[in-house]
Design brief:
About 25% of the residues lie in helices and about 35% in strands. It is α/β, with parallel strands linked by helices. It folds into three domains: about 1-65, Alpha-Beta Plaits (2-Layer Sandwich); about 70-150, GMP Synthetase, Chain A, domain 3 (2-Layer Sandwich), CATH 3.30.300.110; about 175-340, Vaccinia Virus protein VP39 (Rossmann fold, 3-Layer(aba) Sandwich). Strands 13-12-11-14-15-17-16 form a seven-stranded mixed sheet, sandwiched between helices. α3 crosses α4. About 40% of the residues are buried.
Length: about 350
């Protein structure tokens, strides 16, 4: 039967993506083959998803579920903690290269070291971090605690693009993978692009790898993230296209020179719309991200774009919910063309 063969370090992310598309065969088990994992399928995924995880389609037999011991079962069997607590061990995790990030409740606090050890052992990770409080501050630093290992720098591959970053100090949202993949497909031949919140190159680097912009000005305020942005530009051999800039994007010089402006930030993104409107050319496109209460969709993001446009017309090309940000709140993106009325 049909399966998808994926490197083990990307298997959980790939399985989650396939599961959300109802493509995983639930009646048979996942198979491990050396450094790879083979996931059984009931349908054929899009080629873009396969490329995102460095995966290939294969045809093979799979064991019944009764014969399979999955990683969470292996973790629970191996964990030296009270039996009554094993049901609280998380059955989901994020893998960035060979660094794992897990989240669990306070009932397991006394057993952090053992939990780190067993997840590292079963998942084959060099380091395990605990997500201890989400994201903090304007620089969006992850709040984590180190459970196992000492090296928190990950080399993560997504959609054929390499990202090197310190998972203890840099946010990397797996929930944004669809938008990162989408941006890699945006045709921008010969364009000048400004990425106002570049981070480690989440959007800038894939766009430079897969498209043909003339130049991408990638601005980042966080000096740690900027250092990894510089490194990722070099790793992916796009130094001739991406210009990393350390600093506040509001300090960028010039007016009406950008064919495209990427605003991949949340919570207070609207405060930076005047800068985006200053930078964008007549007829240029803004990719505007916002976290918005669901009852205010789609009106609030569109109103904010229109109010900041200075009398110019705002034509919505695409509006999409990227993910749930909090109960009743969505992270959305609006792609809008900005131009003067004739």
């Amino acid at each position: 039967m049909l399966g998808v063969k994926v490197p083990r370090v990307l298997a959980e992310q790939c399985r989650t993506a396939l599961w959300s598309m109802h493509l995983v065969d639930r009646h048979v088990g996942i198979v491990e083959e050396g450094g790879d994992v083979v996931i059984p399928l009931v349908g054929r995924p899009e080629p873009s998803l396969l490329r995102a995880f460095g995966a290939v389609l294969v045809d093979r037999a799979f064991p019944s579920r009764d014969a399979r011991i999955g990683p969470i079962e292996a973790i629970r069997a191996a964990a030296a903690i009270p039996e009554s607590l094993k049901e609280h061990l998380p059955d989901k995790w994020e893998l960035f290269g060979d660094v794992a990030v897990i989240r669990f409740g306070s009932e397991l606090d006394e057993h952090e070291a053992e939990i780190g050890r067993v997840y590292a052992s079963v998942l084959g990770m060099k380091t395990v971090l605990r997500d201890a409080g989400g994201i903090s501050g304007d620089l969006r630093m992850p709040v984590t605690r180190r459970l196992f290992g000492t090296d928190t720098v990950a080399l993560h591959k997504e959609n054929g693009v390499l990202f090197r970053f310190d998972a203890e100090r840099i946010m990397f949202s797996s929930g944004n993978i669809d938008e990162r993949m989408h941006m890699a497909t945006v045709r921008c031949d010969g364009e000048t692009v400004v990425d106002m919140f570049a981070g480690i190159g989440y959007f800038s680097v894939p766009l430079a790898v897969y498209q043909r912009p003339r130049k991408i000005v990638a601005c980042e305020l966080n000096p740690v993230a900027h250092s990894y942005l510089v490194e990722n530009v070099s790793l992916n051999k796009v130094s001739g296209i991406v210009e990393p800039v350390l600093g506040d994007n509001r300090d960028l010089q010039g007016e009406a020179f950008a064919d495209r402006v990427i605003m991949g930030y949340v919570k207070t993104t609207h405060e930076f719309l005047p800068t985006a409107m200053r930078l964008v050319k007549d007829g240029g496109i803004i990719h505007y991200h916002e976290t918005c209460p669901n009852e205010l969709l789609p009106s609030r993001p569109l109103r904010r774009l229109t109010e900041s446009a200075g009398g110019r017309k705002v034509e919505v090309l695409r509006m999409k919910e990227i993910k749930s940000y909090a109960p009743g709140v969505s992270h959305v993106v609006v792609d809008a063309k900005i131009f003067r009325l004739s």
